[in-house]
Amino acid sequence: MKQSFQPHGTAQLSTSAQHQLKLYALAASAAGVGVLALAQTAEGKIVYTSAHKMVRLNHALPIDLNHDGIHDFDVLNLSHHSTSPYGDYVAAEPLNSGNQILALGTRRGYGASALPAGSRVGPSAKQFRAGRDLMAYRSSADSVFSGGPWKNVSKRYLGLKFLIKGKTHYGWARLNVTITDQVNATLTGYAYETAADKSIVTGKTGSGTLGTLARGSRRSP
Questions:
Q1: pLDDT in tens, 151-161
Q2: Are 91 and 112 in contact (CB under 8 A)?
Q3: Angstrom distance (rounded) from CA 173 to CA 164
Q4: CA-CA distances (angstroms) from residue 212 to 45, 128, 161, 167, 215?
Q5: What does the domain layout of the chain look like in residue ranges?
Q6: Is the pTM of this model over 0.70?
Q7: Alpha-carbon gap, residue 157 to 171, rounded angstroms
Q8: Where would I find the beta strands (DSSP E) of the chain?
């Protein structure tokens, strides 16, 4: 009589065991997705906003870097005619506690640094200041004179440090400044790094692209 043999190693799992394995696989998969999401959040990204806004004389142009409805910095264009020498000046100013601007020393005090593209703004950068920092000026008494680190520059950057929910973030604002019979300034774009305490490079708007345009931002005519 021939005997029938069943191959070893192919025992069928019970319905209950199969169900438990499926639950385990789903849990492991969800955990993997969660870790990936946390890694992407920790890595951060650059959020860039295009702009074309002139800073009008005797006005302040506010900058809300992360579009949370809170103005982070002002760029001001102010005239003074009550005392000599007369003229006007453009300056940058933080609007909230903890916000600061990368500055440098000048003969007229501290001024806002006019950074070229490719400059790193982050924890290693020095001379952040919380006060109002001069960018460029034009004055006249017996003669006309002008100056400042932003005198007649194109595509230069403010280095910015600000707080989001108590954590430090870094950003930049790009402006063109010219001096004619007054100081003229135009904001052409700004960006910030979403990861706290992570440096940002001026002019960098994303990984090989124009960057992530902030939701709701508009390009002014």
A1: 999 999 999 99
A2: yes
A3: 17
A4: 8, 26, 20, 21, 9
A5: 14-43, 44-213
A6: yes
A7: 10
A8: 46-54, 59-63, 73-80, 86-94, 100-106, 109-112, 120-121, 128-129, 133-140, 144-147, 153-164, 167-179, 183-193, 200-201, 212-213
